[in-house]
Every structure is written in structure tokens, then in C-alpha cells.
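REQUEST FORM: STRUCTURE PREDICTION
Request ID: SP-0412
Submitted by: Lab K.M.
Chain count: 1
Length (residues): 613
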Amino acid sequence: MKASLLALVALLVAPVTEAFAPHTRLAPKSLTRSSTASTLVMKDYPKPNLEDTENYRNYEALSTSFRTTLRIASETEKKKVAIIGGGLSGLACAKYLVDAGHEPVIYEARDVLGGKVSAWQDEDGDWIETGLHIFFGAYPNMMNLFAELGIHDRLQWKIHQMIFAMQELPGEFTTFDFIPGIPAPFNFGLAILMNQKMLTFAEKLQTAPPLIPMLIEGQPFIDAQDELSVTQFMRKYGMPERINEEVFIAMAKALDFIDPDKLSMTVVLTAMNRFLNESNGLQMAFLDGNQSDRLCAPMKEHIEKLGGQVITNSPIAEIVTKEDGTVDHLLMRSGEKVVADEYVSAVPVDIAKRMIPQKWQQMPYFRQFDELEGIPVINLHMWFDRKLKAVDHLCFSRSPLLSVYADMSVTCKEYYDPEKSMLELVFAPCSPLAGGNVNWIGKSDEEIIDATMGELARLFPTEIANDETWPATAQQGPNGQAKLEKYAVVKVPRSVYAAIPGRNKYRPSQTTPIPHFTMAGDWTCQKYLGSMEGAVFGGKLAAEVIANRAKGNPDKEIKQVQPDVVSKAKDYTPRKPFGVKGEGAIAFGGGATLTKQSEDLLREVDPSQFVKA
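STATUS: Completed
RESULT:
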């Protein structure tokens, strides 16, 4: 340890060379008017060493258990399992159940799989994605899944950096550079210390002490901070206010689409704990194409190859119970009755709340769902008539309206275009729940794009044209030439659960009080919160509950429900479940480019999205 500290000190006092320059213009200096071809060449990096971490090994062992200790010993142990929902969590649950020899059947309401990672093609054949999804090295269950499916080559790993747009220097970027060969946590600390543009040395020193308990105490300390917002935690521990402006706003919006004064500090500490303990935890990868073909399809193929089924366009009308409260069958909208040995709900929390059978509604386990709700977010696709200055990476915009963005024409093989840019951007926060002052879900696509064009004019001041179509660009000078050719606005009225302070304790265990009924989803209890990793892990844990039960072992424990929920549950008046109304992505908790019909449905079932803030 002493040698490592001395090495770190030596690096800190050494002159900063161009190779480690903390403030870099990461794009071509200019684009000539005679050609719009970009001089930036897509560059992928080798897959980092992800396997040499305790987390990876632990979850690899869990994966292996489905093929060994949890695998059925005879046909009498095989269970038919009905899974409601074909998002990542439902797919992961089915994947591990077939590995254990069971027979899962996924019933997906929509015509596409993936839930919040679903993608579809528009009338031009362009892919529209529900969200801008990035794969981190610190996603051990996801990385195990890629290895098990043999699709690691579909990840395009980028240079180990975090890239931030410079607010005070429009058009330029600054970076946290992770130097190869330096282990965690020194690489993370050094990356921050080497950057001279975002925080002063004194501010960096003030930031470190509050994080020490996290490194020493680990998860118990992290969980205990759930009652505090990021802003409250900062002030409690005397962290400088500028770290909020320079770092935490960007982190909070990237992690949960929420401003720091609304986000639980547990979310930020959970992420930082992984990044500080895993040398390659913060290295990022893009999928090399659309999520439907490149991720969901191989999961479906694996499930079906081993005897499971994946059925789309199969919405559930009701979970029908027996007199004793156990599940009798699933009633489909088609009128079909689905009977199984085990049942799994793998739908978003806002949909799950609408489907709770009347006989379950006074149970504290199900009443805790009331304390959780999905956060609104908007994903934008914007096609320009020429190439913008770009980075071959994810960029933290540090904009009041935008979270992160990427030029997918540079970062992703399927979308590669040397002549024109296609930006994918996360528009957040977009509701008061998330800290915003406008309910943007209720705004028109044109209003959202105009606001975004104003932000892009700041990010690309010499490139975005003064375009009368978009009034927000009216201050642009004559040098700007890039005009918007096409756009898609994907609204997700209820995305991942809102990780506001005090919510973590209400997330339910996968084991429920109902025999043979299990919960999955990124919002169920697991430490990776609302994310792709959390969705895969939640589905994997649900599969473990069922496979363990099939072996005749005692059920996994039910997480204790909070006393306030237990008290309120007794006074709850059961009623016929609302059920899910309508069809399509919006009805079932996904994202879509809204039509008049889907907007009318949203106004009816979720009117809060249209209340003026």
C-alpha cells in the first residue's frame, strides 16, 4: 500500500504531458465546406479485464448454479413457469430457468421485446431506441450474460474516460482520464486530480473525506444514506457546492434522470463504490447495433433452444386467484386461461400496481408498491444534414435540459455515417418529480426539439445553424451550417423507479407471501438499482427463487416490510384491480413516439404528466 501511495504522489507532482492533458478538444478542429466527411475514425478498444473482481466471480457462481446445483434432477422437478413481461428482467428470468431445466413461457403484451431497452424501425428503416443505453464494466451480471450467450463481440468498448461538455467554454470538452495499469481506487482518484478544469485542488481535497466511510463500511453505510438527497449529503459532510455544479448534476441525471436535490445519495454512492473498487468499472461500451437484434434476440434464441417459449402480442387481462388467495390462472385479453406451476411478474412497478388481485391488496408486501413510481424521461434521435464535431464516446452534457448524449453515427457500427451526424440524447429532468420545473412529457414534440436545439446551439456554437424552424437557434452566428433533417421524440412517461430519498427500503424481495408467485424487475430489491444491470439481476434472482423451491429447499426470505406500510395496509379498502387499459408501449410502461391515440390514453391513465408545474 505504501508503494502504491508513493507512486500516486509521484504521478500527481509530475508534469502533465499532452498524453494526459486534462482539457482536450476531442474532435476535428474544423470541417471544410467542400466536404462534410468526418476525420474522426471510430476506434474500439479491447474488452477490459472484467472477470477479476469479486462481484463478477460471485455472480458467475450464481449463473453456474442454475446448470449444476439448482438444475432439475428429474422430470418430476421441472416446472412450467408463466412470466408476465418480456423486458430484460423477464428474459433474464426465463434464460436462467431454462438453464436449470425448467419450462418458462414469456407473455409479452407488445410486438417487440426488451421493455425499456426495446427498439423498432420507423418508416425510413431507421432504428428508434427507447433509451441511450451504455454498458459499464461494473455490470457483473450483464457481463456474465454476454459471456454465457457468446456475444461479447457485440460490445464496442471505448477509451477509459469520462467526457464532460465545458459549460463556460462552449464547444469544448474536458475529461477524467483513467490511466492503464493503475488499479482502483488510485486510477479514479488520479483521474479526478489530473483534471484541472472542473474543480480546484482544495475542492478535490474537501470531496474525499465524506467518501472514506463508504470505502471502509461498504454497503451498510451506502444503504443508510438513502434518506438523504445528494445535495443534503454534500452539505451534511461539508463538500464544496461547486462539486454539485461540476459533477453531481451530471451524475444524477445520468444515473436516474433526476436532479441532485431529488436523488437519493444511495444511488450515487452505489455507483461510486463500484467504480472505486473495480479498476475497469467505469469503462463504457456501446452495443454495436439496435438492442432488439443484438441483445434481446440472442436471449430469446437461447430460451427457445432449451425448451422455453417467448410469445409476443399476448397481454394479460387479470391475475385470477382462488378462494385462498393463491393464483388460479392468468386470464389473457384473448380469453385464454394460462395455468402454470409457477408465476412471475416482470412488469414495471406502475403496471404491477394496477394488476394486484383484490385478495392481495391488504397485504403489506403489496402495499409497499404504493411508495414507488416510475420517473418520466424522454429519449431523442436527431439527424443532421452534415457532420458535427463529435467524440467517439458518451458525453455528459452538463446542460439544464439534457443528461447525456452520443453521436451514434460515430460510436455505433450499425449507425455509422461518415457524412452526417445522428445524435441520441437523454432529455432530463422532464418533470417536477425529477427536479424539473416543466412537465415535458405533456409538451409537443416541436416544443421539446426547439428547446433541445437551443441547448445544442450552446454545445456546438459554431456549427448549429440559425434555422427559423427552431426559434431557439435565433442567436446563432453565420458560421453555423448544420440543420436538422429529421427527429424522433420517444417519451417514457414511467421509466425506472424514481430513486428519491427514502424509497429504497420499500423495494420488495423477489419472494412474495403468495405461494408460487415471484416478483422480478429492476425495481425489486437488489443493489444495482434501476438499470439494465438491475433488470438482469432482478430476473436472475427471481429465477433462483423458483429453481430453489423446485429442489424442495426452503423459500428465500421475504424482505421485512416497513412498519408504516404495515399500519396503513390494515385500513386499505380492497377494490377490483384497475388493470391495464389500451394497447401499445405507453399502456404497458414502455416508451413511444406518441400518436394522438396514445397521448389521449396517457391523459386518461396518467393525467399528472399534463399538469402545469
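NOTES: The CA atoms of residues 213 and 275 lie 15 Å apart.
Reviewed by: T.R.
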